[in-house]
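Risk register update: the risk of archive-format incompatibility is retired. Evidence:
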Amino acid sequence: MRCNTPGSLVLKDKALYPVAFFAGAVLPLAFAPLALFPLAFISPAVLFWLWLDASPKQAAKVGFAFGLGFFGVGVSWVYIAIHVYGHTMAPVAAFMTLLFVAFLALLPALQGYTSVRLLRPYRDHPAYERLALLLILPTIWALFEWLRGWVLTGFPWLNLGYSHIDSPLAGAAPWVGVYGISWLSVLISGLLVLMIRQQVWRIKAGVGLVVILSGSFLLGQVEWTEAIDKPITVSIVQGNVPQMTKWDPKMIQFRLDTYADLTRKHWDSDLIFWPENSISVFYHDIKDHYFVPLEKEARASNTDLIVGLPYMDMDTRQYYSSLVSMGKTPGVYHKRHLVPFGEYVPLGFLIRGLVNFFDLPMSSFSPGAKRQDILRAAGQPLATSICYEDAFGEEVINFLPEATLLLNGSNNAWYGNSLAAHQHLQIARMRTIETGRMLIRATTNGISAFVDHRGKIISRSPQFETFVLTDKVQPRTGATPYVRLGNYPVVIGMLVILAFLLWDGRHRSQPN
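Archived output:
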C-alpha cells in the first residue's frame, strides 16, 4: 500500500487519519433514522483496509480517529442532555461530550492495536490477508463490542448488529443475538476487502457473502414461539410534559392531571401503560389521594395500570426508578441497570459540585435486585425493562421464557430532537427478534410503539405530541436459542479463536 519514498510515506500516513475519521463518521448513518445498512459493511471494510498494512501503533491511531468520527456523530445527543437539561454551560458541556467520545474511541484504538499485534506472526504467510480479513479482524471487532457492553457498567449503544434490524442478517438474531449479527456483518466487510485486493478469491468471497446473507434470511423463517391466549388491548399514554418541568413543584399537579385525564378516556383497554418518569414524585407521597382512586377505577373497568415513577423503600430509605402495576395483579419492578451520572454519580463524593449535571435532583437511585418477581398485567407475565436496560439483551432474557410480552418504559425527553430516540427504538426492536416476543414501548415524548415478534413496527406515536397510542398485542410462548443460551455461544466462540491465535502466534514467533 505504501510508496517507497520517505515523502510519500509521510503523506500516506497523514492521509490515513482523515480517511478513518470520515469512515467512522458516516457509520451512524447505517443506524436509525436513515438506516442505510450497507454502510455497516462498507465503513468497517475501509477501516480493515487501513489496518492491513499498519503497525500496531499506527493501527491504534487509525482506530482512535475512526472512533472519534463514529461516536462523535453517533452519540452527539449526549451534549443535549448535559447542556440543555443538565443546566451546564455550553463550553463545559461540549468539553464533557468530547471527553466521553474520546473515551469511547479508545476502544477501537485498542481494538486496532490488538488486531495488528495478533497478525504480526503471520505477516509473511501466504494466507495473511485471508486470515486477517476473515478471522482476526472480525473476531476482535465483535469481541470489543461485547467488552463495551459490560466494561464500567456497559454502553452497548451503536453495536453494529442493530443497524441490520431491516437487513437479511436480522434473521440470525434468534440464534446468535446482536453480537453474533455484528460478527457476521464485519465478516462480510472482510469479504468485500478480499474481493477487491485478491482477484483469485473474488468468486469465493462473493459466494461467501451470498451464503451469509441468504443463510441468515432462511434462519429467520423458523418460528420459535407461538401465540398463546387472546390478544390484549393496550393503551400507551405519552404525556409529552416538557422535560424542563420534571422537577418544577408548580408543574407536579399538571403532570398528574395530564396522565389521569388521558387515562380515564381508555378504561376500555386491558392495560394502560405510563412511561418512565411520567410522574416525578415518590409513589408513597401521592398514593392515597391520587393512585388509590385511579386504582379503584381501573379495577372497576377490569383494566390494569402500569406507571413509571420513583419508588422509595420506607424501611431502608433507598429509592428506585420503578414501574408499579396497579389493578388485578399489583406489583413493582425496580430498575436494575442504572444510567451513570443521570441516575447515580460514580465517585460522587469527589465530583459532585463541579458542574450542575452532577447535581441533578434524584441522581442517587439504588439499583434493583438482579432477580425480581416478574411483573404481571392483563393476565400476562411481562419481561420488564426501564429506559436503556433494553440495550442489554442478556438482562431482558432473565424473565424468559416465562414472560409472554416485552414491556419497556423510557424517558427520551433528555435528548431532544436528536438521533437518540430513533436509535433507541431500533435497539428495542432487536429484543423482539431475539426473544420472539411482541413489545409494548412507552416513552414520555416519543417514540412510543408496538412492535411484533419479528421486529416490525405495528404502530407508533408521533414525537413531541401528547398522544395515546392504542393497539392489540399477542402474547407468545416458547424460547429461541438466544433466550436459552444468551450470548454464551458467541462469546465462547470468540474467546476460543482468540486463545488459538495467541497460542499459534507464540508458537510461530519462537525460533526453530
